[in-house]
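Pilot study result, target chain (349 residues):
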Amino acid sequence: MGQHFPYNDKRTYHLQNSPKGYSSEFFGVRRHGSPEAALAAAQEWEALRKETALPSSGVPTLRDLVVLYLRDSALHPQTMKAIARTLRGPAAGFAEKPADMLTRADLDTLRAESRARGTGPATTNKQQAYIRAALAWGVEHGYLQIHPWAGFKRLRAPKYQMQATMDDFRRIVAVAPPWMRWALMVCYATAARWGHVELFSLQWPAFDWQRRTVSIVQGKTGRPKVAPVGEAFLAEARPRFELDQAQGFAAVIHRGDGKPIRSYRTAWLCTLKRAGVDHHVRPYDIRHCVATAHLDRGVPLPVVADLLGHFSPQVTASVYSHAIDGRAREAAETLPDLTLHTPITHITH
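Predicted structure:
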C-alpha cells in the first residue's frame, strides 16, 4: 500500500486481526463508523492500485478505466484520493458500467448524490471533471471509441468574488509566522496553488538555480509547470536551501522540522486577526493577486496563462475578466487619434 491511507484522522484504529497486508496499517474508524467499514474502504482503495484485466469485450468498466488512468498519470496523491472518493461515493452507482455506456442519466445521478451529501456545485464540477479526464484518456489510448460525456456542460456555480488586495497581503506577511511568510513568498513568486497538492509538496530539487526557475507538478492535471522567478526571490531562497540541505530537509516549506505542512487553518485565521484583515480572505487569493498584477502591468494574456499553468488563455480570460476589462478601457483611452487635428470641412454634393 501507499505511505498513508487517505482516511487517517485524529482518532485511529489499529486493525490487529485484519487480513494479511493490512495488519500494520491505521484506518480512520470515526469517518466510516466501524472497523469493518474502514477496512472495506481500505481494501477498495488497495484494489485501485492493483493490475486491472480488461473484460473479454475489450471495454473496461469505469472503475477499471480510472485505475488504468491513475496508473498512467502523474497526478498528486491527494488528487488520486479525491478521484477514488468520487468513485466510492457519488459515482458508485455506475462505476461498474462499461465506460463507453455512460449516459446523461449517470451524470444526473452523480449530481444528485453529491447534492444529497451536501456537496456544492463547484466540487461536483470537479468530480465530473475527474471522470471526464479518465474518459478522455481512455479515448486517447484506444480503450474507448467515443467520449460519452464529451458534450455535457458543468453546473453553473457562483463565481467567487475575490476580496483580497495586495495591501491585505502586505499586512499579512508583516505579522505572519516565519513559515507562513515564506509560504506566501513562494506562492507569490511562482503562482503555485496554495495547499498540500502543489505548494506544500514542493521540494528543493524543483529549483534550478542557474536557469532561475522552479518546476511545479500541477495537482489538477499532473502536468509540469516551469515558473521563472526573480533574483530577489532566489536571494531569499538560497540560504534557506543551504540550511535545509545541511539538515537533510527536502520540503521547501516547513515549520523548522523539515516536515511538510499538514494543517494551517488556525494559524491563518490568527494571522488575519493580527493583521486586521477580513476573515474571508483566503491564502489562495494571493495567486489571484499575482495574475491581476501581471495583467494590470500589460503582460500578454498567453504569458499570464502560462505562468498560472492554465490549459489555455481562454481559462485565464474567463477568471480574470475584471483585470482584462480594465486594460481594455485603458487601451481605448490611449488609442492614438486618427485625425490630423485639421478643421473639418463639410462635404457637399
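One observation from the pilot: The domain at 55-158 is CATH 1.10.150.130 (DNA polymerase; domain 1). A full batch analysis is planned for the follow-on phase.
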